[in-house]
Amino acid sequence: MTISEKLIPRLLARFPGRGLARTRGNATGCNLPAVHPDVGDLCIDDDGVELTISVGELTHGHSVPTNYQESSRSCERRMWKRSSRG
Known about the structure:
single chain, 86 residues, alpha+beta, 5 strands, globular
């Protein structure tokens, strides 16, 4: 199971009714429409190695495991915390 397969349902639960949608043709990506057009949409893509999280054209970041000995459960919790701040 990919991190996005766990992340997307949690985002849907945290932001109900906000229009979160999977990226067309990509079951591992999603877009959360912007609250303000000057900021832009939140886009998340999971390539199986890392999450790329973009905020409109303003910025983006990459979340990758920094400790490959870390359990997948621990890694998932850490990545969930990093991607769901707010």
